[in-house]
Amino acid sequence: MNYGCTLQAFAMQEAYKELGQDPIIIDRFITPSNSLLLGPLSRKGFKGFIKNVVFCIFGCGTFSMIVRVLKTLRFHKKYMYKTPYSFYDWNDAPKSLGVDMISVGSDQIWNANLYSPVPYLLKGIPNTIPGISYAASIGMPELSPQYLQEFKDGFAKFKAISVREKQGVKLVNGLGFSATQVVDPTLLVNPALWKKFKSNKIYKKKRLLCYTLAEELLELLPKLEKFSKDNDCDVVVFPDRFEKWYGFKPLNVLKTQKLRLRLLKSPVKVFISAAIEDFMREISAATWIVTNSYHAMMFSVIYRRNIRIIVPSDKVRQGMHARMQEFEGTIVEGPLMQASTADALKSFEKGEIVSVNEIELSNRIKKSKEWLKSQLITIKNEVN
After folding, report:
1. Does the pLDDT value for residue 313 go beyond 90?
2. What would the pLDDT profile of 35-81 be if each residue is shown by its tens digit?
3. I want to staple 256 with a disulfide (CB 3.0 to 4.6 A). Which of 224, 229, 245, 262 is the partner?
4. Beta bridge partners of 131
5. Any idea where the domains of the chain sit in the sequence?
6. DSSP states of 7-32 as a string?
7. Is 85:93 a contact under the CB 8 Å cutoff?
8. Residue 235 backbone dihedrals phi, psi, to 5 degrees
9. Are 184 and 323 in contact, with CB atoms under 8 Å apart?
10. Is the confidence at residue 165, as pLDDT, over 50?
11. Cis bond upstream, residue 106 (ω within 30)
12. pLDDT score, position 251
């Protein structure tokens, strides 16, 4: 259901098509139950059905999350070309993958703080199938010691390595391998691709979009409500998942019901069921955006929106924060980085704006395309 995960895969698919390739996405699950895509629908059987019914009645956001899953699956079916087979463990993959080369990337695939990076290091892939990484993201200040040998063995198998962040270049180089920094796949494709997802609606009021990951919605609401009142504007919130309120421990139930009542009274629109198209539409329509999401930043650049990036409160996401900090003063000029949501809102009220350095962005995209074209030509010549 993750917006960025889906959109970078879709963008990479389209980028390869633009280069004359015939791409297909290997349908490998990130978790055994495919819960990151299916959410509540990953609960199987009668027991899972009953759980979902109970959570829809007594929980907060479960029904909307199911709607979001269904909308996401619809996007996958309509726009993404995936293998007819699917699996979690590479040992369960078919002997013939039906591909001539493999490209891995991009979003957090080598971040060991989230999931094992091993499946994206070509382990178990036949040596006859060449592999490259495009814009692979590590999202950690240091490589995990637990996987250090796997990183060394994996990097050795790649024909070429490209990463998304400066930090990644340093970490790959530190193991004795060469890496090139390239732009995220969402920036690599022809910008015309994203125009069809842009909002065509004209709103009477200015709009603030708030999309944060691993932040407390109850703590954000008072600030957002005050901003809405003081600036006579609409405020839309894309909340993080609500799994942290699942369960029937007394404190969880109390917190869930408190949130439920709070949302009923709030003038802020909390769009729990927002899926892929909603994400792009709302970003393109927003006057202001406050987020800690990398791909919210990417689409703010694509749609040239006035955005602020806040420092995450979550420790894992704090380790990933450098990937966005490097944009300030390079591709994005102005007060992009803010310490908190409150600081971001103050910046908007002062009338401050950010802008895109068009020359720098164009140069980075051009170099990234040249790098990818070069690897495709090299692999084609080696095969022939």
Report:
1. no
2. 888 888 888 899 999 988 888 877 667 888 889 999 999 999 999 99
3. 245
4. 102
5. 3-188+362-383, 192-353
6. HHHHHHHHHHHHTT----EEEE-SST
7. yes
8. -125, 125
9. no
10. yes
11. yes
12. 59
Residue for token pair 């790959």:
172
Cβ neighbours of residue 74 under 8 Å, at least 6 residues apart?
275
Tell me the DSSP string of 82-95: EEEEEESSGGGS-S
SS3 356: strand
The closest of 169, 252, 128, 269 to 210, measured between CA atoms, is 269
What 3-state class would DSSP assign to 268? coil
Identify whether the C-beta of residue 88 lies closer than 8 Å to the C-beta of residue 29.
yes
Q: Are 138 and 168 in contact (CB under 8 A)?
A: yes
Two structure tokens written together for 15: 């980028």
CA distances from 77 to 70, 83, 84 (A): 11, 12, 12
Is pLDDT at 34 greater than 90 in this prediction? no
What is the average pLDDT score of the chain? Answer: 91
* Sequence-ordered list of residues with C-beta below 8 angstroms from that of 262, at least 6 positions apart, any chain: 218, 221
Say how far apart CA 102 and CA 111 lie, in whole Å.
Answer: 19
Average the pLDDT over 302-306 and give the result.
98
CB of 323 within 8 A of CB of 140? no
pLDDT band at 245 (very low <50, low <70, confident <90, very high): very low
φ, ψ for residue 38, nearest 5 deg: -90, -15
Share of the chain above pLDDT 90, in %: 66
CA distances in angstroms from 116 to 30, 223, 278, listed in the order given? 9, 37, 30
Per the CB < 8 A criterion, the answer to whether 379 and 159 are in contact is: yes
Report how far residue 120's alpha carbon sits from residue 107's, in angstroms, rounded to the nearest whole number: 11
Quote the pTM value.
Answer: 0.92
pLDDT at 244: 46
Q: What are phi and psi of 153, to 5 degrees?
A: -65, -40
In CATH, the number for domain 192-353 is: 3.40.50.2000
**Which helix (DSSP H) or strand (DSSP E) does residue 51 occupy?**
helix 45-58
Sorted by sequence, the CB contacts under 8 Å of residue 111 that are 6+ apart come out as: 117, 137, 138, 139, 140, 320
